[in-house]
Design goal:
Layout (H helix, E strand, L loop, with lengths): L2 H17 L5 E5 L2 H11 L6 E7 L26 E6 L7 H13 L4 E6 L16 H17 L5
Parallel strand pairs: 1-2, 2-3, 3-4
Length: 155
Amino acid sequence: MPLQVVRVRRCVGFLRRKIRKRDSEFIASPSIENTFSAENTSNRFHNTFKAGVAFYGSLADQHSEAMPQNALDTAAQVKEPVLGLYGAEDQGIPVEQVNQMKDALAKAGKTAEFKIYPGAPHGFHADYRASYRKEAAEDGWSQMQAWFKKYKVLG
């Protein structure tokens, strides 16, 4: 079993124990490719995520043996609603990539929203890094909670 899948399963178990709601599976990740990968593998384990939130993360990684497909390649396979939170000044993830993902998901009829924070770099939610942007981080946290409430992950 791929290491990433093991990590996702462990995270889901931890979150289930913490929130004590076994019917509300979700994923919030600092990386959208992890969010999309987790969602696309969720059916393999008969788990269904109700929603996903990605705090930045590459959408168009180079193909390799370890990653034969990237998030853009698998957009049509996404089953759960996804919220993507991105920084406009992210040097590694151009806004153009975010727009490509938004378009790919829309073309496939998927439920997704993306918010791009002006002036925010990669890692804007990481309060232990110089890239932290308080306003964007706080709004992103609120957006995530609202998204999970909307899709009945949180009460």
